[in-house]
């Protein structure tokens, strides 16, 4: 597969524009954004509130469509996919970690982690083994039976990361995954993401406001007013 070429780009973004509204009140959230993300690296996306980080992450992950431009992830042109293609992309290649964790409250931690594996129709025994492994990876081996409300914020975010990794995605997109956490817990969540870049070989694109987090990234990409600094 194209993305397995070590050092090649896993993500290619070219000439992306995205506006909201029209006329004089239009907001130009992204203005001619182009960049690559090298496979197997962690890229931190930073910039002031409103600079376009979330808009960009949503477009890279196929949650939103640009007005112009192209996005290619692991050889698939995201911007050319229909709804079926996009669901398949999200099932097979791209996983999200949201600022608000996004766990299903009535499910235990283990059940939450297993959701993408159920969607992939992995047999039960194999699924349970993988869930156990993932919970261990994020340091929550003893917390699998707890529901999100019975876990701390940092633990919930680690469950969300385990879930994101469950189906072995090529790309993990994380939008301010530490925004709701104290500095120390946030750092441990970022360190965990950093670790899976090495151990699972995934590529991580993460937005953050925390300068401390940037030190962990292979590359810091700055956004200003809808544009990515060269
Ligand atoms: N659905 C929308 N409708 C209208 N305007 C939007 C919409 N989504 C984003 N915007 C505007 O686009 C610009 C970029 O927003 P975006 O959410 O991408 O910023 P951000 O860098 O993620 O900010 P933050 O750090 O606060 O999360 C902002 O001016 C915002 O108001
Ligand atoms: Mg945002």
Automatic annotation (TrEMBL):
<dbReference type="InterPro" id="IPR015854">
    <property type="entry name" value="ABC_transpr_LolD-like"/>
</dbReference>
<dbReference type="GO" id="GO:0098796">
    <property type="term" value="C:membrane protein complex"/>
</dbReference>
<dbReference type="InterPro" id="IPR003593">
    <property type="entry name" value="AAA+_ATPase"/>
</dbReference>
<keyword id="KW-0547">Nucleotide-binding</keyword>
<dbReference type="GO" id="GO:0005886">
    <property type="term" value="C:plasma membrane"/>
</dbReference>
<dbReference type="InterPro" id="IPR017871">
    <property type="entry name" value="ABC_transporter-like_CS"/>
</dbReference>
<dbReference type="GO" id="GO:0005524">
    <property type="term" value="F:ATP binding"/>
</dbReference>
<feature type="domain" description="ABC transporter">
    <location>
        <begin position="11"/>
        <end position="230"/>
    </location>
</feature>
<dbReference type="Pfam" id="PF00005">
    <property type="entry name" value="ABC_tran"/>
</dbReference>
<dbReference type="GO" id="GO:0016887">
    <property type="term" value="F:ATP hydrolysis activity"/>
</dbReference>
<dbReference type="InterPro" id="IPR017911">
    <property type="entry name" value="MacB-like_ATP-bd"/>
</dbReference>
<protein>
    <submittedName>
        <fullName>ABC transporter ATP-binding protein</fullName>
    </submittedName>
</protein>
<dbReference type="InterPro" id="IPR027417">
    <property type="entry name" value="P-loop_NTPase"/>
</dbReference>
<dbReference type="GO" id="GO:0022857">
    <property type="term" value="F:transmembrane transporter activity"/>
</dbReference>
<keyword id="KW-0067">ATP-binding</keyword>
<keyword id="KW-0813">Transport</keyword>
<dbReference type="InterPro" id="IPR003439">
    <property type="entry name" value="ABC_transporter-like_ATP-bd"/>
</dbReference>
């Amino acid at each position: 597969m194209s993305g397995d070429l070590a050092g090649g780009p896993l993500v290619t973004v070219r000439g992306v524009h995205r506006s909201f509204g029209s006329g004089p009140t239009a907001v130009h959230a992204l203005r001619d954004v182009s960049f690559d993300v090298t496979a197997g690296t962690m890229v931190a996306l930073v910039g002031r509130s409103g600079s376009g980080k979330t808009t960009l992450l949503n477009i890279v992950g196929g949650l939103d469509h640009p007005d112009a431009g192209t996005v290619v992830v692991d050889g698939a042109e995201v911007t050319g996919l229909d709804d079926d293609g996009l669901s398949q992309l999200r099932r097979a290649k791209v996983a999200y970690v949201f600022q608000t964790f996004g766990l299903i409250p009535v499910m235990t931690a283990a059940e939450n982690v297993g959701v993408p594996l159920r969607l992939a129709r992995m047999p039960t025994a194999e699924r349970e083994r993988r869930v156990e492994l993932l919970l261990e990876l994020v340091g929550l081996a003893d917390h699998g039976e707890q529901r999100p409300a019975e876990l701390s914020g940092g633990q919930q975010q680690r469950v969300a990361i385990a879930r994101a990794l469950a189906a072995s995605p090529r790309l993990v997109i994380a939008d301010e995954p530490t925004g709701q956490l104290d500095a120390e817990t946030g750092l441990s969540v970022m360190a965990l993401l950093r670790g899976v870049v090495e151990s699972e070989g995934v590529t991580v694109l993460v937005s953050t406001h925390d300068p401390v987090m940037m030190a962990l990234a292979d590359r810091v990409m700055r956004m200003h007013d809808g544009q990515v600094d060269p």
